[in-house]
Amino acid sequence: MSKSRSSQIITCKAAVIWACGEPLKVEEIQIEPPKSTEVRVRMLYASLCHTDVLRARRKGDPVAVFPRVLGHEGVGMVESFGDEVNGLEEGDYVIPTMLAECEACENCTSANTNLCLTYPLSRSGLMLDGTSRMSIKGQKLYHMFTCSTWSEYMVIDYNYVHKIDPSIPLPHASVLSCGFSTGFGAAWKEAQVKMGSTVAVLGLGAVGLGVTEGARMLGAAKIIGVDKNSMKKDKGLAFGMTDFINPDECSDKSISQMIKDLTGGMGVDYCFECVGAESLINQAIQATKEGKGKTIVIGGGISSVKIDYFPLLSGRTLKGSIFGGLKVKSDLPILMEKCKNKEFDLDELLTHEVTLQDIEKAFELLKQPDCVKVLIKI
């Protein structure tokens, strides 16, 4: 296989954020050539994830490094790559993955986790060697996880990319690089939802709808969607939801009680917290069946939470999840095949679209009640 070598620095447009809470500015930045195990990608589409919003807008972020180019969902085309990269050619379509799978470490050979020890989840905003491939006027720019998709070009270690079938619609590929896949995986890999079981999903964004679809495909008999936005009801129904709760419409009852009312007082087998709200964690636990209920926490944004002890003592399980427990090489191709075969309708997620130049509008669109996912056309 021929190796692509590029020694040229590329100047391109990217959305730069200089400090938490400041607006993004589309500016010219410099992208360095890829090193031996890296790939330079020309981005085509990206999307806006709740985690990106937290990094951009929330004070007290434990990884508050700036200036930064955010974005970890997206799809692009390989422009060049280093001499140790295998399995990729120029022009291949790829998506970034926040995780890798070496297939050899203790975690990768275990069925219990998807967190690779050889190529860990990056929280530093830098490449594996502790440096950046992006700069602006000579100043270092930080990445988002292993990549930065809100840019015309990005450099990423090839262990954190996944080659996709070019027949998959590129906007769909973008949302499969995190949000929807995270939810689907949480139902499939983390909870291992059983046929005929009952499920509650707190928050019907892209992640929650992924959970809903996963639970439907696995044969759940009852899937209860919970969201304060009643416009999310139709979206939930499109992905397999059977019942809908708007907590604001029944303020005299707790969410856990409303879920129990729909399950004969028993609670559900599985509850998924997809919002990242401290107040919902205990509600999620209490909404599950005593002795066997599982609560899977997927939503980001919580720094600490006080857990009620007795519901856990009563035999329930609380588990956290990154990327829905999906292993990049083992599991992600299965989701891609389902997407290729049109087994789920990702057009239902893509409610709005902006250009990179107008990326600030994406944050405002997310506040609209009819918005699920904002696609960014690079």
Automatic annotation (TrEMBL):
<dbReference type="GO" id="GO:0008270">
    <property type="term" value="F:zinc ion binding"/>
</dbReference>
<comment type="subunit">
    <text>Homodimer.</text>
</comment>
<dbReference type="InterPro" id="IPR013154">
    <property type="entry name" value="ADH-like_N"/>
</dbReference>
<keyword id="KW-0479">Metal-binding</keyword>
<dbReference type="Pfam" id="PF00107">
    <property type="entry name" value="ADH_zinc_N"/>
</dbReference>
<dbReference type="InterPro" id="IPR036291">
    <property type="entry name" value="NAD(P)-bd_dom_sf"/>
</dbReference>
<keyword id="KW-0560">Oxidoreductase</keyword>
<dbReference type="GO" id="GO:0046294">
    <property type="term" value="P:formaldehyde catabolic process"/>
</dbReference>
<keyword id="KW-0520">NAD</keyword>
<dbReference type="Pfam" id="PF08240">
    <property type="entry name" value="ADH_N"/>
</dbReference>
<dbReference type="InterPro" id="IPR020843">
    <property type="entry name" value="ER"/>
</dbReference>
<dbReference type="GO" id="GO:0051903">
    <property type="term" value="F:S-(hydroxymethyl)glutathione dehydrogenase [NAD(P)+] activity"/>
</dbReference>
<dbReference type="InterPro" id="IPR013149">
    <property type="entry name" value="ADH-like_C"/>
</dbReference>
<feature type="domain" description="Enoyl reductase (ER)">
    <location>
        <begin position="21"/>
        <end position="376"/>
    </location>
</feature>
<keyword id="KW-0862">Zinc</keyword>
<dbReference type="GO" id="GO:0005829">
    <property type="term" value="C:cytosol"/>
</dbReference>
<dbReference type="GO" id="GO:0004022">
    <property type="term" value="F:alcohol dehydrogenase (NAD+) activity"/>
</dbReference>
<dbReference type="InterPro" id="IPR002328">
    <property type="entry name" value="ADH_Zn_CS"/>
</dbReference>
<comment type="similarity">
    <text>Belongs to the zinc-containing alcohol dehydrogenase family. Class-III subfamily.</text>
</comment>
<dbReference type="InterPro" id="IPR011032">
    <property type="entry name" value="GroES-like_sf"/>
</dbReference>
<protein>
    <recommendedName>
        <fullName>alcohol dehydrogenase</fullName>
        <ecNumber>1.1.1.1</ecNumber>
    </recommendedName>
</protein>
